[in-house]
């Protein structure tokens, strides 16, 4: 008579779901408390009249109707678009040139650290420093201009110069970080492609347009999406240097929203403009992602 052997039941392996949830929980809590809830609260307030002193009063689409008919809103949006165009154009071209030079000529970690140094400075500090440098009477920048025999330039006090100057200040601060992002993308391009092109007699300029730019497209697309979103949210540099002046020449949309909320206590109207900015940025991001095919790469 044979006795059937009994073996203990196999244990199911313990999953890592609980541990993963534990590690994700702090970030998720921060997302819910500091991002999702304020966003939903802001959308609700955009349909109300609210001044912090009295309960919010539901007004429906009144704030949005007011926004559409507000000439200052459209002027602020125009100023913001002008700033974004200058900032993105100069920053992208400069960052691309720096990244290519770092990749083709030298890959020194010390040099990359120097390029990144301005980004380690806060926008407020950068704004104050450049405010001193570009002061019309005492700034060292205008001292150099005067020393070269030119008239002093009111960089931050003239309607024509103010927005381009603020854009260049922010380019100076962010171009190193953007260049390093592009530099990381350049590192993913196989070097044998450049070697094969050199054997065929291709110049550096031809290799840049036929190899570097096509294969760098996904990275450039992501960089453009990030920089456009950040540029539309410019505030601190304007607040420190010009406070929206002269004559609203630098009254960018974020500064106008801030003034409406904390200067005039029109939190409902400020929320409506914030929601409009959110919609605009979402649409621009979607179009950029689709048109640049940011999710696809030409590297096989």
UniProtKB/TrEMBL annotation:
Residues 77-288 form the ABC transmembrane type-1 domain. Pfam families: BPD_transp_1. PANTHER family: ABC TRANSPORTER PERMEASE PROTEIN, DIACETYLCHITOBIOSE UPTAKE SYSTEM PERMEASE PROTEIN NGCF. GO terms for cellular component: plasma membrane. The chain crosses the membrane at residues 18-37, 83-102, 114-133, 215-235, 267-287. It comes from Streptomyces sp. SID12501. Belongs to the binding-protein-dependent transport system permease family. This is Sugar ABC transporter permease. InterPro entries: ABC_transporter_permease, MetI-like, MetI-like_sf. It is found in: Cell membrane. PROSITE patterns: ABC_TM1. The keyword Transmembrane applies. Keywords: Cell membrane, Membrane, Transmembrane, Transmembrane helix, Transport. One of its GO terms (biological process) is transmembrane transport.
């Amino acid at each position: 008579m044979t006795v059937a052997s009994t073996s203990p039941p196999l244990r199911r392996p313990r999953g890592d779901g609980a541990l993963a949830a534990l590690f994700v929980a702090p970030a998720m809590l921060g997302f819910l408390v500091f991002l999702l809830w304020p966003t939903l609260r802001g959308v609700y307030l955009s349909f109300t009249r609210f001044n912090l002193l009295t309960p919010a009063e539901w007004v429906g689409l009144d704030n949005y109707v007011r926004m559409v008919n507000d000439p200052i809103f459209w002027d602020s949006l125009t100023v913001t678009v002008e700033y974004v165009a200058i900032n993105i154009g100069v920053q992208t071209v400069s960052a691309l040139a720096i990244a290519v030079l770092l990749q083709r000529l030298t890959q020194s970690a010390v040099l990359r650290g120097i390029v990144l140094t301005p980004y380690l400075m806060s926008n407020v500090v950068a704004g104050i420093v450049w405010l001193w440098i570009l002061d019309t009477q005492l700034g060292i920048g205008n001292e150099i201009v005067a020393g070269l025999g030119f008239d002093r330039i009111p960089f931050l006090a003239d309607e024509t110069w103010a927005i381009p100057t603020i854009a260049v200040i922010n380019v100076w601060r962010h171009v190193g970080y953007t260049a390093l992002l592009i530099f990381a993308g350049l590192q993913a391009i196989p070097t044998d492609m450049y070697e094969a092109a050199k054997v065929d007699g291709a110049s550096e300029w031809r290799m840049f347009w036929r190899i570097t730019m096509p294969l760098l497209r996904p990275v450039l697309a992501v960089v453009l999406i990030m920089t456009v979103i950040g540029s539309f949210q410019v505030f601190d540099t304007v607040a420190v240097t010009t406070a929206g002046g002269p004559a609203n020449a630098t009254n960018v949309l974020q500064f106008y929203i801030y003034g409406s909320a904390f200067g005039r206590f029109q939190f409902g109207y400020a929320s409506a403009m914030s929601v409009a900015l959110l919609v605009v940025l979402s649409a621009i991001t979607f179009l950029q992602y689709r048109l640049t095919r940011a999710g696809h790469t030409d590297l096989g």
